[in-house]
Specification:
The chain has 294 residues and is an alpha/beta fold. It has 2 domains: 10-171, NAD(P)-binding Rossmann-like Domain (Rossmann fold, 3-Layer(aba) Sandwich); 178-292, Orthogonal Bundle (N-(1-d-carboxylethyl)-l-norvaline Dehydrogenase, domain 2). 51% of the residues lie in helices and 14% in strands. Helix 1 (20-29) runs parallel beside helix 7 (132-138) and helix 9 (174-202) packs across helix 12 (242-259). The longest helix has 29 residues, at 174-202. The chain starts with 9 loop residues before the first strand and ends in a 16-residue tail after the last helix.
């Protein structure tokens, strides 16, 4: 890891999507030697053209010689596909190295991969992020981490290059469980904001003037500060897609079935998002819940 002398290390980053592309860029800007892999090779070549470093033809190739391998892909199946097999990252990463997964996935797959990694002498951290595309681009993500404290301490200084908050939440799986809480809370906040703005409109008062007042009190939230204006304007072609939120809420509901938690509002809002998908809004920002309200 980066030592007291400021030494930089070899890292790999697998998955250069909306989040991964800028996150890997921050690693390069911090001076680390970065090798990237992306399923669509042209995206990796685009990253190298912008940030330098190197691209690899397979996750195993990217992982060779890396002290930390980062991943940020779509879901549990995507994660398994880049982790296992002769071309998977596990085949290339050296014993003593760390695999850090930033995918929002299930706690089940995090524990599964940690077990496989440990059997190969590899440390593992599940480290989902919050903050969206803007947070990734600005290097201000919040990272919720599950794993052993000594491993976390080794990886944290490197993750700091794209984060404003990195916290160890408990053993492997705890990062994913914390991200589930995050998504549960966001879903409720967006629905509440949607209903409030729609109510203001029906009541004949200016929704944005209402927000200007109530955002200075107990109703204030990130969603209100960053989404109220675009919600009133009916603009949703940006941000965190409904498709991805439905994936995340599905993970929450599945975990709740295992641990006995009750999520009646979350399950209802998930169905509202299904309605948004049915009217063609799968790629719209999650704030598009307001589209369902007259």
């Amino acid at each position: 890891m980066e030592g007291k002398s400021g030494e930089k290390i070899n890292v790999a980053f697998i998955g250069l999507g909306t989040m991964g592309f800028p996150m890997a860029g921050h690693l390069a800007k911090a001076g680390h030697r970065v090798t990237v892999y992306n399923r669509t090779r042209s995206k990796a070549e685009q990253w190298v053209a912008k940030h330098g470093g190197a691209s690899a033809g397979a996750p195993a190739e990217a992982a060779k010689g890396a002290e930390i391998v980062f991943s940020c892909v779509g879901n549990d199946d995507d994660l398994r596909s880049i982790f296992y097999g002769e071309n998977g990252a596990l085949a290339g990463i050296a014993p003593g190295s760390i695999f850090v997964d930033h995918t929002t996935s299930s706690a089940v797959v995090a524990r599964e991969l940690e077990k496989a990694a440990r059997q190969s002498g590899i440390a593992f951290l599940d480290a989902p992020v919050s903050g969206g595309q803007a947070g990734a681009e600005n290097g201000t993500l919040t990272i919720m981490v599950g794993g052993e404290e000594n491993v976390f301490k080794r990886a944290m200084p490197v993750m700091d290059s794209y984060a404003r908050m990195v916290m160890l939440m408990g053993p492997v799986g705890s990062g994913q469980l914390t991200k589930m809480v995050n998504q549960i809370c966001i879903a409720g906040l967006v629905q509440g904001l949607s209903e409030g703005l729609a109510f203001a409109r029906r009541a004949g008062i200016d929704p944005l003037r209402v927000v200007e007042v109530i955002s200075k009190g107990a109703a204030q939230s990130w969603q209100m500060d960053n989404r109220a204006k675009t919600m009133v304007e009916g603009k949703f072609e940006f941000g965190f897609a409904v498709n991805w939120m439905r994936k995340d809420l599905g993970i929450c509901v599945d975990e709740a079935r295992r641990n006995g938690a009750l999520l009646p509002i979350t399950a209802l809002i998930d169905q509202f998002y299904a309605e948004v998908q049915s009217i063609g809004g799968g790629r719209w920002d999650t704030s598009s819940l307001i589209k369902l309200l007259p």
